[in-house]
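Tokens in:
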């Protein structure tokens, strides 16, 4: 792995494949690290003719942390949101989209297929809004438009996400895997060994619990729906029908809002990319086919 300085911060990244191939940039979700995009998944995309770039967002993993910003008060932020008051956040999706474009600049990439999952989908959408000339296509996986009229996350799933982290390592790992399990849908087997390993690797690379609140605030209250209606780049929207964090209506709203989007619904998938049961192949095969029809 390597790092670059972009948008005034250090960004840790890793690549797969030939740099002369069509680039696809993978953006992870909240408090997740680049290893959430599994090696085999990245290798499959690379073997299909893509230069794959995965990276740690700001404030996670080996990229620059923002611990000096402190841990925001989520209760106060949600209260302000409900009252129509401004929300103070250490950084926003615009900042994170500028990080991503800065990484592209540092790597000499003028345009890429930009693929984000969860919070990463929100960042990818923001890039499409604010830097439309940098995208070959937009791929939004279990994302949303930020439309305040959409259904909210299931309470038990959201509470698991925002619950305070324990102090001891093994307790942290147990909490993370329990959350993975709660986010999973019923249509695919849960690979506990894989998730245990992912949690342990994430902890050892630099799990930063304080970044959770900061990243939650980055996109809180941002309604991208009006701006997304003006997106011109080819767009693929992928969503699970059993997503407890970002209900499927968020994916449908994204596809309905962005002109000429393709929508792929995966029955029984939750807020995850299941390693077992064929979801990876469904997703990667569709991405590969979708990108192959777009001129590099």
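Residues out:
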């Amino acid at each position: 792995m390597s790092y670059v300085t972009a948008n005034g911060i250090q960004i840790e990244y890793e690549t797969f494949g030939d740099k002369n191939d069509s680039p696809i940039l993978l953006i992870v979700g909240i408090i997740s690290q680049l290893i959430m995009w599994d090696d085999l998944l990245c290798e499959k995309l690379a073997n299909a003719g893509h230069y794959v770039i995965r990276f740690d967002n700001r404030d996670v993993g080996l990229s620059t942390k923002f611990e000096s910003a402190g841990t925001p008060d989520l209760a106060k932020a949600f209260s302000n949101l409900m009252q129509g008051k401004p929300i103070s956040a250490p950084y926003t999706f615009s900042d994170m989209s500028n990080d991503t474009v800065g990484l592209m600049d540092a790597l000499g990439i003028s345009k890429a297929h930009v693929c984000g999952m969860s919070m990463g989908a929100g960042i990818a959408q923001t890039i499409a809004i604010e830097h439309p000339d940098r995208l070959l296509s937009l791929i939004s996986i279990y994302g949303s438009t930020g439309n305040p009229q959409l259904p909210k996350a299931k309470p038990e799933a959201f509470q698991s996400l925002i619950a305070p982290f324990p102090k001891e390592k093994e307790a942290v790992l147990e909490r993370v895997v329990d959350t993975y399990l709660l986010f999973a849908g019923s249509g695919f087997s849960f690979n506990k060994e894989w998730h245990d390993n992912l949690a342990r690797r994430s902890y050892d690379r630099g799990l930063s619990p304080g970044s959770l609140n900061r990243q939650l605030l980055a996109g809180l209250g941002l309604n991208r729906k009006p701006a997304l209606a003006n997106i011109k780049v080819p767009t693929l929207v992928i969503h699970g029908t059993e997503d407890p964090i970002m209900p499927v209506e968020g994916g449908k709203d994204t596809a309905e809002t962005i002109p000429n989007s393709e929508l792929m619904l995966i029955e029984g998938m939750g807020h995850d990319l299941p390693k077992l049961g064929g979801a990876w192949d469904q997703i990667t095969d569709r991405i590969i086919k979708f990108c192959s029809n777009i001129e590099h």
